[in-house]
Amino acid sequence: MLEIKKEVIKYAKKLNTENLSPLRSGNISIRGTNNGVDGFFITPSGIKYEDLVAESIVFLELNETNNLKKISDKTINPSSEWRFHQDIYIKKIDAKAIVHAHSANATAVSAHGKNIPAFHYMVALAGGNNIKCAEYATFGTKELSENILKALEERKACLMSNHGQVAFGKSLDEAFELAQEIENICHQYINAIKLGNPKILSDNEMKKILEKTKNYKKN
Fold first, then answer.
1. Which of 81, 174, 177, 205 is catalytic?
2. What distance in Å separates the CA atoms of residue 188 and residue 202, rounded to the nearest whole number?
3. I want to staple 101 with a disulfide (CB 3.0 to 4.6 A). Which of 21, 25, 31, 88 is the partner?
4. Is 0.85 surpassed by the pTM of this model?
5. Stretch 56-61: mean pLDDT, rounded?
6. Structure confidence at residue 74 (pLDDT)
7. Where is average pLDDT lowest: 16-25, 78-87, 114-123?
């Protein structure tokens, strides 16, 4: 359990050092168990990442009724976005870790509330022929969680309207790398639309790309 908490802290700090999410924004979680109870470990609310220690990381129970039960007796509160982390773990069996970031370019694109089309084949890394943008809802609400789950249908990442992005993977390393990829794609998309309407790859071409990227990993 201690090693899992250390991993959460490591990647939470990387949100800052890799310029993926400034200050206290964004959050990190990883699926795990505590005393035989299934759940997830998540960053706390309101604590600077540089000040995190193992005791700062909160364990929340995961169960089919979506009830929240704080296993730890600590008074530290979990991230205000715990709800969509919980729901993603319930709905996505392959989600082992989640990264939520307010990265600059993803947030800028999300402010338009539109999906990112297949202007580049790397869009497929999110899992489909576009990167969907979840409809806006107040942070920390069930409505936002439901909107995110809808945008993540057949996807591993999505934008969150007027908010940022969320990505999941089979490990924190994989989820974090995907979040970095989404941020880079958003940067490229911003530059592309400055020149006008970019060429969009066909659905047929994207099907080929999706097949090729199933086991994609950077060298």
1. 81
2. 19
3. 21
4. yes
5. 94
6. 52
7. 16-25
* 3-state SS, one letter per residue, for the chain: CHHHHHHHHHHHHHHHHCCCCCCCCCEEEEEEEECCEEEEEECECCCCHHHCCHHHCEEEECCCCCCCCECCCCCCCECCCHHHHHHHHHHCCCCCEEEEECCHHHHHHHCCCCCECCCCHHHHHHCCCCECEECCCCCCCHHHHHHHHHHCCCCCEEEECCCEEEEEECCHHHHHHHHHHHHHHHHHHHHHHHCCCCCCCCHHHHHHHHHHCCCCCCC
183: annotated active-site residue: no
Contact criterion met (CB below 8 Å) for 116 and 189: yes
